[in-house]
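Quick note —
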Amino acid sequence: MGKKSEKKSYAAPEYMLTYGDMVTLLLTFFVAMFTFGEADPREMRLILSSFSGNLGVFEGGMTLSKGQLADMGMTIESLPSTERGSSMARSIKQAQEILKPEIRSKMVRVSEDERGIVISLASDTFFGPGSARLNLERGADLLKKVVQLVERATNQKLRIEGHTDDTPVGEGGAGEERYRDNWQLSTARALAVLAHMTKEGVPGNRLQVGGFADNKPIESNDTPEGRAYNRRVDIVMLRN
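Predicted structure written out below.
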């Protein structure tokens, strides 16, 4: 019998496996480099700037990075702030606690909207019909509490807004008090509250004032109770 023919092996040498892996990794690396080379430089800076200097490329600070991004207004102050939201929540909680008796007696409403915290004072507590003369015998203690709340919110801007119901102005004013319409009456009442607050020490540069007549009702004017709610002076603690 003849010798059995030996089978030939066609497998690649073992070193070729390692070499193939190395070539694949090099190809992947150069493809990635080419992709980054085609990227928009502005987009890359936006991505990298979020690291705030951790890569040792950009300086940290109050802006995301210097130059064009800062010119675009992309500052820390323009981003949503959890701390500011928490501050507003604390302020409204304080207002509801301090004014609890007046809220129960419906002399005051405390709410929050897109402007900020709104402290609504019932005008009937402070003013006679058709009058913008403050009745401090009835409202002095309430205004004192409001001033205390305002003083706690250091440097926060305030807007004092006068509102009326849709009843035309009558002859209720005394002496020289005669108002042509609800625009004048609502503005005069807001100014009266502003004057009292500045007298109590609230800096004038924190205050704004406006009159809105019957254009922003919070209740229907079809009932006496609704009209009473609409006759109000709002002290708005504005969001920063």
